[in-house]
Amino acid sequence: MAKTGGDLLIERLIEWGVDTIFGLPGDGINGLFESLRTHQDQIRFIQVRHEEAAAFMAAGYAKFTGKLGVCMATSGCGGLHLLNGLYDAKYDGQPVLAITGHTYHDISGSFYQQDADLTKVFMDLAPYNERIMGPDHVVNAVDQAIRTALGQRTVSHLSFPKDFQEWTTSDDTRSMPNIKGHTSVLKVSVNITPDLIQLQRAADLINAGKKVVILAGRGALDARGEVVQLAETVGGPIIKALLGKAVVPDDSPYTTGGIGLLGTAPSQDAMEECDTLVMIGTHFPYLEYYPKPGQAQTIQMDLDATHIGMRTPVDVGLVGDSKTILQALLPLINRKEERHFLEKAQERMSFWRDLMTERGTQSAIPMKPQVVPHLISPLLDDDAIITCDCGNNTTWAARHIQLRGTMQFSTSGLLATMGSGLPYAIAASVAYPGRQVVALVGDGGFTMLMGEMATAVKYKLPIKVFIFHNNSFGQIKWEQIVLEGNPEFGVDIQSIDFAAYARACGATGFTIDDPANAAGIIQQALAHDGPVIVDAIVDQNEPPMPGKITTDQAIALTKALIRGERDSGDIIKNIIGNQFSEAVATKGRSLLTVLPGIGK
Protein backbone atom coordinates (compact mmCIF):
# COMPACT_ATOMS: atom_id res chain seq x y z
CA MET A 1 0.00 0.00 0.00
CA ALA A 2 1.39 3.40 -0.99
CA LYS A 3 2.15 5.73 1.89
CA THR A 4 1.08 9.34 2.17
CA GLY A 5 3.51 12.21 2.41
CA GLY A 6 2.42 12.65 6.03
CA ASP A 7 3.16 9.00 6.82
CA LEU A 8 6.60 9.23 5.23
CA LEU A 9 7.47 12.27 7.36
CA ILE A 10 6.22 10.90 10.68
CA GLU A 11 7.77 7.47 10.13
CA ARG A 12 11.13 9.02 9.22
CA LEU A 13 11.04 11.11 12.39
CA ILE A 14 10.44 7.93 14.38
CA GLU A 15 13.42 6.29 12.65
CA TRP A 16 15.56 9.24 13.81
CA GLY A 17 14.44 8.59 17.40
CA VAL A 18 11.96 11.46 17.71
CA ASP A 19 9.41 10.55 20.37
CA THR A 20 7.70 13.90 21.09
CA ILE A 21 6.28 16.73 18.99
CA PHE A 22 4.95 19.98 20.46
CA GLY A 23 2.37 21.87 18.46
CA LEU A 24 -1.14 23.02 17.71
CA PRO A 25 -3.43 21.54 15.04
CA GLY A 26 -4.71 23.42 12.01
CA ASP A 27 -6.17 22.71 8.60
CA GLY A 28 -2.80 23.35 6.95
CA ILE A 29 -1.34 20.26 8.66
CA ASN A 30 -4.35 17.97 8.80
CA GLY A 31 -2.55 15.37 6.71
CA LEU A 32 0.31 15.29 9.19
CA PHE A 33 -2.11 15.01 12.09
CA GLU A 34 -3.79 12.00 10.56
CA SER A 35 -0.41 10.32 10.46
CA LEU A 36 0.28 11.37 14.06
CA ARG A 37 -3.06 9.80 15.00
CA THR A 38 -2.23 6.51 13.36
CA HIS A 39 1.28 6.44 14.84
CA GLN A 40 0.42 7.67 18.35
CA ASP A 41 1.75 4.44 19.88
CA GLN A 42 5.23 5.39 18.62
CA ILE A 43 5.30 9.17 18.86
CA ARG A 44 3.41 11.49 21.20
CA PHE A 45 1.89 14.84 20.39
CA ILE A 46 1.75 17.53 23.10
CA GLN A 47 -0.96 20.04 22.29
CA VAL A 48 -0.20 23.64 23.29
CA ARG A 49 -2.39 26.74 23.51
CA HIS A 50 -0.04 28.96 21.45
CA GLU A 51 2.50 27.96 18.83
CA GLU A 52 5.15 30.23 20.36
CA ALA A 53 5.03 27.97 23.40
CA ALA A 54 5.48 24.90 21.18
CA ALA A 55 8.73 26.34 19.85
CA PHE A 56 9.92 27.20 23.37
CA MET A 57 9.05 23.67 24.46
CA ALA A 58 11.03 22.18 21.59
CA ALA A 59 14.00 24.37 22.57
CA GLY A 60 13.66 23.42 26.24
CA TYR A 61 13.29 19.75 25.36
CA ALA A 62 16.55 19.92 23.40
CA LYS A 63 18.31 21.75 26.24
CA PHE A 64 17.31 19.31 28.96
CA THR A 65 17.60 16.04 27.00
CA GLY A 66 20.34 16.74 24.46
CA LYS A 67 18.01 15.33 21.78
CA LEU A 68 16.34 16.94 18.78
CA GLY A 69 13.37 19.12 19.72
CA VAL A 70 10.46 19.12 17.26
CA CYS A 71 7.53 21.51 16.92
CA MET A 72 4.71 21.72 14.41
CA ALA A 73 2.35 24.51 13.32
CA THR A 74 -0.16 25.15 10.61
CA SER A 75 0.39 27.32 7.54
CA GLY A 76 0.62 31.09 7.68
CA CYS A 77 -0.25 32.43 11.12
CA GLY A 78 0.68 29.21 12.94
CA GLY A 79 4.17 29.14 11.50
CA LEU A 80 4.66 32.84 12.18
CA HIS A 81 3.83 32.27 15.85
CA LEU A 82 6.78 29.85 16.13
CA LEU A 83 9.42 32.46 15.36
CA ASN A 84 10.28 33.77 18.83
CA GLY A 85 10.77 30.34 20.35
CA LEU A 86 12.78 29.19 17.35
CA TYR A 87 15.11 32.18 17.54
CA ASP A 88 15.60 31.29 21.20
CA ALA A 89 16.72 27.81 20.11
CA LYS A 90 19.00 29.20 17.39
CA TYR A 91 20.70 31.75 19.63
CA ASP A 92 21.28 29.18 22.39
CA GLY A 93 22.60 26.56 19.96
CA GLN A 94 19.84 23.98 20.36
CA PRO A 95 18.88 21.44 17.66
CA VAL A 96 15.23 21.99 16.75
CA LEU A 97 13.17 20.96 13.74
CA ALA A 98 10.14 23.13 12.91
CA ILE A 99 7.50 21.64 10.61
CA THR A 100 4.89 23.98 9.16
CA GLY A 101 2.03 23.59 6.76
CA HIS A 102 1.63 25.46 3.51
CA THR A 103 -1.24 26.07 1.14
CA TYR A 104 -1.98 23.77 -1.83
CA HIS A 105 1.11 23.58 -4.02
CA ASP A 106 -0.63 24.72 -7.22
CA ILE A 107 -2.13 27.91 -5.79
CA SER A 108 0.95 28.94 -3.79
CA GLY A 109 1.78 32.61 -4.27
CA SER A 110 -1.76 33.58 -5.30
CA PHE A 111 -2.75 35.14 -1.98
CA TYR A 112 -4.90 32.19 -0.99
CA GLN A 113 -5.92 31.94 2.64
CA GLN A 114 -2.88 31.60 4.97
CA ASP A 115 -0.59 31.68 1.93
CA ALA A 116 2.46 33.09 3.71
CA ASP A 117 5.74 31.92 2.21
CA LEU A 118 7.30 30.65 5.43
CA THR A 119 10.47 29.50 3.69
CA LYS A 120 11.18 33.16 2.95
CA VAL A 121 10.18 34.22 6.46
CA PHE A 122 12.55 31.63 7.96
CA MET A 123 15.56 32.52 5.78
CA ASP A 124 17.47 34.27 8.57
CA LEU A 125 16.41 31.71 11.13
CA ALA A 126 17.06 28.28 9.67
CA PRO A 127 20.25 27.20 7.84
CA TYR A 128 18.22 24.33 6.38
CA ASN A 129 14.91 25.73 5.17
CA GLU A 130 13.04 23.73 2.55
CA ARG A 131 9.59 23.31 1.05
CA ILE A 132 8.52 19.70 0.49
CA MET A 133 7.99 19.14 -3.23
CA GLY A 134 6.10 15.85 -3.05
CA PRO A 135 6.08 12.48 -1.27
CA ASP A 136 9.30 11.31 -2.95
CA HIS A 137 11.06 14.40 -1.59
CA VAL A 138 10.06 13.82 2.05
CA VAL A 139 12.74 11.40 3.25
CA ASN A 140 15.58 13.36 1.59
CA ALA A 141 14.42 16.63 3.12
CA VAL A 142 13.75 15.21 6.60
CA ASP A 143 17.17 13.56 6.74
CA GLN A 144 19.02 16.69 5.69
CA ALA A 145 16.97 18.88 8.04
CA ILE A 146 17.79 16.68 11.02
CA ARG A 147 21.46 16.32 10.05
CA THR A 148 21.74 20.10 9.90
CA ALA A 149 19.92 20.71 13.19
CA LEU A 150 22.03 18.14 15.06
CA GLY A 151 25.30 18.82 13.28
CA GLN A 152 25.18 22.60 13.52
CA ARG A 153 23.12 22.74 16.73
CA THR A 154 20.60 25.02 15.12
CA VAL A 155 17.07 25.25 13.73
CA SER A 156 15.87 23.49 10.57
CA HIS A 157 12.54 24.18 8.91
CA LEU A 158 10.33 22.13 6.60
CA SER A 159 7.30 23.70 4.94
CA PHE A 160 4.84 21.04 3.78
CA PRO A 161 2.07 21.95 1.26
CA LYS A 162 -1.30 20.68 2.39
CA ASP A 163 -2.07 18.52 -0.63
CA PHE A 164 1.34 16.85 -0.68
CA GLN A 165 0.70 15.62 2.87
CA GLU A 166 -2.14 13.45 1.53
CA TRP A 167 -0.59 12.45 -1.78
CA THR A 168 0.94 9.00 -1.89
CA THR A 169 4.06 7.80 -3.62
CA SER A 170 1.80 6.41 -6.35
CA ASP A 171 0.64 9.98 -7.06
CA ASP A 172 4.24 11.13 -7.43
CA THR A 173 6.92 10.45 -10.01
CA ARG A 174 10.40 9.95 -8.60
CA SER A 175 13.06 11.70 -10.66
CA MET A 176 15.85 9.66 -12.21
CA PRO A 177 18.68 10.90 -9.93
CA ASN A 178 16.56 10.50 -6.78
CA ILE A 179 17.58 6.89 -6.18
CA LYS A 180 15.41 5.29 -3.54
CA GLY A 181 17.28 4.55 -0.30
CA HIS A 182 20.27 6.77 -1.08
CA THR A 183 19.95 8.69 2.22
CA SER A 184 20.18 7.13 5.68
CA VAL A 185 19.61 7.76 9.37
CA LEU A 186 23.02 8.21 10.98
CA LYS A 187 23.94 10.18 14.09
CA VAL A 188 27.54 11.35 13.91
CA SER A 189 29.82 11.96 16.91
CA VAL A 190 31.12 15.50 17.32
CA ASN A 191 34.03 14.63 19.60
CA ILE A 192 36.78 16.78 18.11
CA THR A 193 40.28 17.35 19.47
CA PRO A 194 42.68 20.08 18.26
CA ASP A 195 46.16 19.04 17.19
CA LEU A 196 48.93 18.62 19.76
CA ILE A 197 50.70 21.84 18.73
CA GLN A 198 47.63 23.94 19.58
CA LEU A 199 47.07 22.04 22.81
CA GLN A 200 50.67 22.61 23.87
CA ARG A 201 50.42 26.34 23.08
CA ALA A 202 47.34 26.55 25.30
CA ALA A 203 49.05 24.57 28.07
CA ASP A 204 52.14 26.80 27.92
CA LEU A 205 50.02 29.93 28.44
CA ILE A 206 48.08 28.36 31.30
CA ASN A 207 51.26 27.07 32.94
CA ALA A 208 52.82 30.54 32.71
CA GLY A 209 49.83 32.27 34.29
CA LYS A 210 49.82 33.19 37.97
CA LYS A 211 46.16 34.21 38.24
CA VAL A 212 44.09 31.88 36.10
CA VAL A 213 40.32 32.28 35.78
CA ILE A 214 37.97 29.78 34.11
CA LEU A 215 34.81 31.09 32.44
CA ALA A 216 32.44 28.17 31.80
CA GLY A 217 29.25 28.24 29.75
CA ARG A 218 26.59 25.82 28.49
CA GLY A 219 29.19 24.12 26.26
CA ALA A 220 30.92 22.86 29.42
CA LEU A 221 27.86 21.15 30.90
CA ASP A 222 29.08 17.73 29.75
CA ALA A 223 32.59 18.35 31.09
CA ARG A 224 31.85 18.97 34.76
CA GLY A 225 34.58 16.73 36.13
CA GLU A 226 37.22 18.04 33.76
CA VAL A 227 36.38 21.68 34.55
CA VAL A 228 36.77 21.06 38.29
CA GLN A 229 40.03 19.18 37.68
CA LEU A 230 41.37 22.14 35.70
CA ALA A 231 40.39 24.57 38.48
CA GLU A 232 42.08 22.43 41.10
CA THR A 233 45.23 22.06 38.99
CA VAL A 234 45.67 25.76 38.21
CA GLY A 235 44.35 27.05 41.56
CA GLY A 236 41.84 29.31 39.85
CA PRO A 237 38.14 30.10 40.33
CA ILE A 238 35.38 28.96 37.99
CA ILE A 239 33.10 31.78 36.86
CA LYS A 240 29.82 30.62 35.34
CA ALA A 241 27.89 32.20 32.49
CA LEU A 242 24.17 31.89 33.27
CA LEU A 243 23.51 28.93 30.96
CA GLY A 244 26.55 27.25 32.52
CA LYS A 245 25.15 27.55 36.05
CA ALA A 246 24.98 23.75 36.38
CA VAL A 247 28.60 23.15 35.29
CA VAL A 248 29.65 22.94 38.95
CA PRO A 249 27.54 23.03 42.13
CA ASP A 250 27.02 26.50 43.54
CA ASP A 251 28.58 25.49 46.84
CA SER A 252 31.78 24.27 45.16
CA PRO A 253 34.92 25.83 46.67
CA TYR A 254 36.11 26.45 43.11
CA THR A 255 33.31 28.73 41.92
CA THR A 256 32.56 32.39 42.46
CA GLY A 257 29.19 32.04 40.77
CA GLY A 258 27.87 34.09 37.89
CA ILE A 259 29.12 37.06 35.92
CA GLY A 260 27.47 40.16 34.51
CA LEU A 261 24.52 42.23 35.72
CA LEU A 262 23.13 39.27 37.67
CA GLY A 263 26.50 37.88 38.71
CA THR A 264 28.60 38.21 41.83
CA ALA A 265 31.16 40.75 42.96
CA PRO A 266 33.84 38.05 43.54
CA SER A 267 33.49 36.93 39.92
CA GLN A 268 33.99 40.46 38.69
CA ASP A 269 36.98 40.94 41.01
CA ALA A 270 38.57 37.78 39.62
CA MET A 271 38.03 38.96 36.04
CA GLU A 272 39.59 42.33 36.82
CA GLU A 273 42.67 40.79 38.47
CA CYS A 274 43.42 37.70 36.36
CA ASP A 275 46.38 37.39 34.01
CA THR A 276 45.04 34.28 32.23
CA LEU A 277 41.49 33.51 31.10
CA VAL A 278 40.31 30.07 29.98
CA MET A 279 36.92 30.22 28.24
CA ILE A 280 35.14 26.87 28.00
CA GLY A 281 32.02 26.51 25.89
CA THR A 282 30.90 30.11 26.18
CA HIS A 283 30.66 33.32 24.20
CA PHE A 284 29.18 35.32 27.08
CA PRO A 285 27.93 38.48 25.34
CA TYR A 286 28.64 41.39 27.71
CA LEU A 287 32.02 42.72 26.65
CA GLU A 288 32.47 45.07 29.61
CA TYR A 289 32.79 42.13 32.03
CA TYR A 290 35.81 40.57 30.34
CA PRO A 291 39.41 41.47 31.24
CA LYS A 292 40.56 44.63 29.52
CA PRO A 293 42.26 43.94 26.15
CA GLY A 294 45.91 43.18 26.80
CA GLN A 295 45.35 42.32 30.46
CA ALA A 296 45.09 38.52 30.20
CA GLN A 297 46.34 35.75 27.97
CA THR A 298 43.18 34.05 26.74
CA ILE A 299 42.46 30.48 25.65
CA GLN A 300 39.01 29.74 24.23
CA MET A 301 37.42 26.32 23.64
CA ASP A 302 34.28 26.10 21.53
CA LEU A 303 32.56 23.67 19.20
CA ASP A 304 31.89 26.54 16.77
CA ALA A 305 34.98 28.14 15.24
CA THR A 306 33.04 31.35 14.53
CA HIS A 307 32.77 31.97 18.29
CA ILE A 308 36.53 32.05 18.82
CA GLY A 309 37.65 35.64 19.46
CA MET A 310 34.12 37.03 19.11
CA ARG A 311 34.02 38.74 22.53
CA THR A 312 37.59 39.30 23.64
CA PRO A 313 41.08 38.95 22.10
CA VAL A 314 42.08 35.26 22.09
CA ASP A 315 45.66 33.96 22.02
CA VAL A 316 44.84 30.29 21.41
CA GLY A 317 41.57 28.95 20.03
CA LEU A 318 40.73 25.27 20.45
CA VAL A 319 37.84 24.05 18.31
CA GLY A 320 35.96 20.99 19.52
CA ASP A 321 33.75 19.74 22.31
CA SER A 322 34.87 20.82 25.77
CA LYS A 323 35.14 17.39 27.36
CA THR A 324 37.36 15.94 24.63
CA ILE A 325 39.60 19.03 24.56
CA LEU A 326 40.03 19.11 28.33
CA GLN A 327 40.81 15.41 28.49
CA ALA A 328 43.63 16.01 26.01
CA LEU A 329 44.78 19.27 27.62
CA LEU A 330 44.82 18.35 31.31
CA PRO A 331 47.88 16.03 31.13
CA LEU A 332 49.85 19.01 29.78
CA ILE A 333 48.92 21.34 32.68
CA ASN A 334 51.28 21.69 35.63
CA ARG A 335 49.77 21.89 39.10
CA LYS A 336 50.25 25.32 40.68
CA GLU A 337 51.29 25.14 44.32
CA GLU A 338 50.58 28.84 44.88
CA ARG A 339 46.87 29.08 45.84
CA HIS A 340 46.65 32.71 46.97
CA PHE A 341 44.51 33.83 44.00
CA LEU A 342 41.97 31.04 44.58
CA GLU A 343 41.99 31.54 48.34
CA LYS A 344 41.30 35.25 47.93
CA ALA A 345 38.35 34.44 45.66
CA GLN A 346 37.06 31.95 48.22
CA GLU A 347 37.32 34.52 50.99
CA ARG A 348 35.36 37.03 48.96
CA MET A 349 32.79 34.40 48.06
CA SER A 350 32.26 33.65 51.75
CA PHE A 351 31.35 37.30 52.32
CA TRP A 352 29.10 37.23 49.25
CA ARG A 353 27.21 34.13 50.44
CA ASP A 354 26.65 35.79 53.81
CA LEU A 355 25.29 38.82 51.98
CA MET A 356 22.90 36.67 49.92
CA THR A 357 21.70 34.96 53.09
CA GLU A 358 21.05 38.36 54.63
CA ARG A 359 19.09 39.43 51.55
CA GLY A 360 17.12 36.19 51.44
CA THR A 361 16.05 36.26 55.10
CA GLN A 362 14.60 39.78 55.27
CA SER A 363 11.30 40.03 57.11
CA ALA A 364 10.13 43.33 55.63
CA ILE A 365 6.73 43.85 54.04
CA PRO A 366 6.28 44.25 51.08
CA MET A 367 8.10 40.94 50.90
CA LYS A 368 11.53 41.09 49.28
CA PRO A 369 11.75 38.98 46.11
CA GLN A 370 14.97 37.31 47.28
CA VAL A 371 13.04 35.55 50.08
CA VAL A 372 11.23 33.24 47.64
CA PRO A 373 14.19 31.54 45.91
CA HIS A 374 16.20 31.58 49.13
CA LEU A 375 13.50 29.44 50.77
CA ILE A 376 12.91 27.26 47.71
CA SER A 377 16.56 26.36 47.14
CA PRO A 378 17.22 23.97 50.06
CA LEU A 379 13.88 22.23 49.47
CA LEU A 380 14.70 21.21 45.89
CA ASP A 381 15.49 17.62 45.00
CA ASP A 382 19.09 16.86 44.07
CA ASP A 383 17.96 16.15 40.49
CA ALA A 384 15.45 18.99 40.18
CA ILE A 385 15.11 20.94 36.94
CA ILE A 386 14.81 24.70 37.36
CA THR A 387 13.69 27.11 34.67
CA CYS A 388 13.32 30.84 34.87
CA ASP A 389 11.97 33.59 32.69
CA CYS A 390 13.86 36.72 31.67
CA GLY A 391 13.52 39.72 33.94
CA ASN A 392 14.22 40.52 37.57
CA ASN A 393 13.31 36.92 38.38
CA THR A 394 16.45 35.87 36.49
CA THR A 395 18.62 37.81 38.92
CA TRP A 396 16.95 36.33 41.97
CA ALA A 397 17.14 32.79 40.55
CA ALA A 398 20.77 33.15 39.47
CA ARG A 399 21.89 34.39 42.89
CA HIS A 400 19.70 32.46 45.30
CA ILE A 401 19.00 29.07 43.70
CA GLN A 402 21.98 26.94 44.71
CA LEU A 403 22.45 24.05 42.30
CA ARG A 404 23.78 20.72 43.55
CA GLY A 405 23.81 17.08 42.54
CA THR A 406 22.49 16.53 39.02
CA MET A 407 20.21 19.56 38.95
CA GLN A 408 19.62 21.21 35.59
CA PHE A 409 18.93 24.89 34.99
CA SER A 410 18.13 26.98 31.96
CA THR A 411 16.55 30.14 30.68
CA SER A 412 16.52 32.06 27.42
CA GLY A 413 20.17 33.04 26.96
CA LEU A 414 21.23 35.25 24.06
CA LEU A 415 17.68 36.09 22.96
CA ALA A 416 16.74 36.82 26.59
CA THR A 417 13.07 36.69 25.71
CA MET A 418 10.20 36.87 28.12
CA GLY A 419 7.66 34.06 28.16
CA SER A 420 10.02 31.07 28.03
CA GLY A 421 10.00 29.96 31.67
CA LEU A 422 6.63 28.18 31.75
CA PRO A 423 7.03 26.35 28.39
CA TYR A 424 10.54 25.27 29.37
CA ALA A 425 9.12 23.78 32.58
CA ILE A 426 6.43 21.91 30.67
CA ALA A 427 9.02 20.50 28.26
CA ALA A 428 11.22 19.39 31.15
CA SER A 429 8.30 17.64 32.86
CA VAL A 430 7.31 15.91 29.61
CA ALA A 431 10.90 14.71 29.15
CA TYR A 432 11.44 13.61 32.76
CA PRO A 433 8.07 12.68 34.31
CA GLY A 434 9.64 11.52 37.58
CA ARG A 435 11.69 14.63 38.33
CA GLN A 436 10.82 17.78 40.24
CA VAL A 437 10.40 20.77 37.91
CA VAL A 438 10.23 24.34 39.21
CA ALA A 439 9.75 27.54 37.20
CA LEU A 440 10.62 30.99 38.55
CA VAL A 441 8.88 33.65 36.47
CA GLY A 442 7.80 37.26 36.60
CA ASP A 443 4.19 38.37 36.34
CA GLY A 444 5.00 40.07 33.02
CA GLY A 445 6.60 37.06 31.38
CA PHE A 446 4.07 34.59 32.77
CA THR A 447 1.07 36.46 31.40
CA MET A 448 2.52 36.31 27.87
CA LEU A 449 1.90 32.55 27.65
CA MET A 450 -0.18 31.90 30.75
CA GLY A 451 -2.60 29.74 28.75
CA GLU A 452 0.02 26.99 28.88
CA MET A 453 -0.92 26.38 32.51
CA ALA A 454 -3.92 24.59 31.03
CA THR A 455 -1.47 22.44 29.05
CA ALA A 456 0.23 21.41 32.30
CA VAL A 457 -3.17 20.50 33.75
CA LYS A 458 -4.24 18.57 30.65
CA TYR A 459 -1.16 16.36 30.71
CA LYS A 460 -1.04 16.12 34.52
CA LEU A 461 2.43 17.65 34.68
CA PRO A 462 3.30 18.43 38.34
CA ILE A 463 5.26 21.59 37.62
CA LYS A 464 5.58 24.23 40.33
CA VAL A 465 5.42 27.82 39.06
CA PHE A 466 6.53 30.64 41.38
CA ILE A 467 5.47 34.08 40.14
CA PHE A 468 7.31 37.19 41.34
CA HIS A 469 4.27 39.44 41.38
CA ASN A 470 5.29 43.10 41.42
CA ASN A 471 2.77 44.58 38.94
CA SER A 472 5.63 45.76 36.77
CA PHE A 473 7.93 44.86 33.92
CA GLY A 474 10.58 45.06 36.60
CA GLN A 475 13.81 44.63 34.70
CA ILE A 476 12.74 47.14 32.06
CA LYS A 477 11.93 49.57 34.88
CA TRP A 478 15.42 49.24 36.35
CA GLU A 479 17.03 49.50 32.94
CA GLN A 480 15.22 52.79 32.42
CA ILE A 481 16.38 54.07 35.80
CA VAL A 482 19.90 52.65 36.19
CA LEU A 483 21.14 52.31 32.61
CA GLU A 484 19.40 55.27 31.01
CA GLY A 485 18.98 57.69 33.93
CA ASN A 486 15.29 58.14 33.15
CA PRO A 487 12.25 57.86 35.43
CA GLU A 488 10.24 54.70 34.77
CA PHE A 489 7.53 54.88 32.11
CA GLY A 490 5.16 52.36 30.54
CA VAL A 491 6.17 49.50 32.82
CA ASP A 492 3.16 49.19 35.14
CA ILE A 493 0.97 46.15 34.48
CA GLN A 494 -2.52 45.31 35.68
CA SER A 495 -2.57 42.96 38.64
CA ILE A 496 -4.03 39.45 38.32
CA ASP A 497 -4.95 37.02 41.08
CA PHE A 498 -2.71 34.21 39.86
CA ALA A 499 -3.78 31.77 42.56
CA ALA A 500 -7.38 32.16 41.39
CA TYR A 501 -6.22 31.76 37.80
CA ALA A 502 -4.48 28.51 38.72
CA ARG A 503 -7.72 27.17 40.18
CA ALA A 504 -9.63 28.30 37.09
CA CYS A 505 -7.26 26.18 34.98
CA GLY A 506 -7.72 23.18 37.24
CA ALA A 507 -4.39 23.57 39.03
CA THR A 508 -3.69 24.47 42.66
CA GLY A 509 -2.97 28.04 43.67
CA PHE A 510 -1.31 29.65 46.68
CA THR A 511 -0.57 33.26 47.56
CA ILE A 512 2.38 34.53 49.62
CA ASP A 513 2.61 38.13 50.77
CA ASP A 514 4.28 37.77 54.17
CA PRO A 515 7.74 36.25 54.67
CA ALA A 516 6.55 34.89 58.01
CA ASN A 517 4.23 32.48 56.17
CA ALA A 518 6.40 31.90 53.12
CA ALA A 519 8.31 28.80 54.21
CA GLY A 520 5.20 26.81 55.10
CA ILE A 521 3.38 27.70 51.88
CA ILE A 522 6.41 26.89 49.72
CA GLN A 523 6.79 23.49 51.41
CA GLN A 524 3.10 22.78 50.85
CA ALA A 525 3.33 23.81 47.21
CA LEU A 526 6.38 21.66 46.48
CA ALA A 527 4.79 18.64 48.17
CA HIS A 528 1.57 18.87 46.17
CA ASP A 529 1.10 16.12 43.57
CA GLY A 530 0.05 18.22 40.61
CA PRO A 531 0.61 21.54 38.85
CA VAL A 532 0.81 24.54 41.19
CA ILE A 533 1.07 28.31 40.92
CA VAL A 534 2.47 30.25 43.87
CA ASP A 535 1.59 33.94 43.56
CA ALA A 536 4.35 35.71 45.50
CA ILE A 537 3.54 39.39 46.08
CA VAL A 538 6.92 41.14 46.23
CA ASP A 539 8.38 44.62 46.55
CA GLN A 540 8.58 46.23 43.12
CA ASN A 541 11.16 48.75 44.36
CA GLU A 542 13.81 46.19 45.32
CA PRO A 543 16.72 46.99 42.97
CA PRO A 544 18.29 44.02 41.11
CA MET A 545 21.63 45.81 41.05
CA PRO A 546 24.85 44.35 39.61
CA GLY A 547 27.28 42.65 41.97
CA LYS A 548 29.57 45.64 41.58
CA ILE A 549 28.22 49.10 40.89
CA THR A 550 29.96 51.33 38.36
CA THR A 551 30.11 55.07 38.80
CA ASP A 552 28.16 55.51 35.55
CA GLN A 553 25.34 53.32 36.87
CA ALA A 554 25.26 55.24 40.14
CA ILE A 555 25.11 58.57 38.31
CA ALA A 556 22.32 57.31 36.03
CA LEU A 557 20.32 56.23 39.08
CA THR A 558 20.83 59.63 40.67
CA LYS A 559 19.65 61.37 37.49
CA ALA A 560 16.48 59.28 37.44
CA LEU A 561 15.74 60.15 41.07
CA ILE A 562 16.34 63.86 40.45
CA ARG A 563 14.30 63.91 37.22
CA GLY A 564 11.14 62.71 38.94
CA GLU A 565 11.23 58.96 39.54
CA ARG A 566 7.95 58.50 41.38
CA ASP A 567 9.23 55.84 43.81
CA SER A 568 12.37 57.73 44.82
CA GLY A 569 11.69 57.48 48.55
CA ASP A 570 11.11 53.73 48.55
CA ILE A 571 14.07 53.10 46.26
CA ILE A 572 16.46 55.09 48.47
CA LYS A 573 15.07 53.37 51.57
CA ASN A 574 15.73 49.95 50.00
CA ILE A 575 19.24 50.95 48.96
CA ILE A 576 20.13 52.13 52.44
CA GLY A 577 18.32 49.32 54.22
CA ASN A 578 19.57 46.43 52.10
CA GLN A 579 23.02 47.40 50.88
CA PHE A 580 24.85 48.70 53.93
CA SER A 581 26.94 45.53 54.14
CA GLU A 582 27.62 45.24 50.41
CA ALA A 583 30.87 47.18 50.63
CA VAL A 584 32.40 44.26 52.52
CA ALA A 585 31.75 41.86 49.65
CA THR A 586 32.60 44.28 46.84
CA LYS A 587 35.74 46.02 48.08
CA GLY A 588 33.84 49.23 48.78
CA ARG A 589 31.91 49.41 45.51
CA SER A 590 28.41 49.43 46.98
CA LEU A 591 25.75 51.97 46.15
CA LEU A 592 26.35 53.53 49.57
CA THR A 593 29.91 54.43 48.65
CA VAL A 594 29.33 55.35 45.01
CA LEU A 595 25.91 56.99 44.83
CA PRO A 596 26.24 60.78 45.10
CA GLY A 597 24.48 62.20 48.13
CA ILE A 598 23.74 58.84 49.76
CA GLY A 599 27.14 57.58 50.81
CA LYS A 600 28.09 60.73 52.71
UniProtKB/TrEMBL annotation:
Extract the CDD domains matched here. TPP_POX, TPP_PYR_POX
Q: Which UniProt keywords apply?
A: Thiamine pyrophosphate
Question: Which residues are in the Thiamine pyrophosphate enzyme central domain?
Answer: 199-329
* Residues in Thiamine pyrophosphate enzyme N-terminal TPP-binding domain copies: 4-113
Checking Pfam families in the record gives: TPP_enzyme_C, TPP_enzyme_M, TPP_enzyme_N
- The yes or no answer to whether the keyword Ion transport is present is no
Give residue ranges for domain Thiamine pyrophosphate enzyme TPP-binding: 389-535
Which PANTHER family does UniProt cross-reference here? PYRUVATE DEHYDROGENASE [UBIQUINONE]
Assigned protein family: Belongs to the TPP enzyme family.
The protein's name is Thiamine pyrophosphate-dependent enzyme
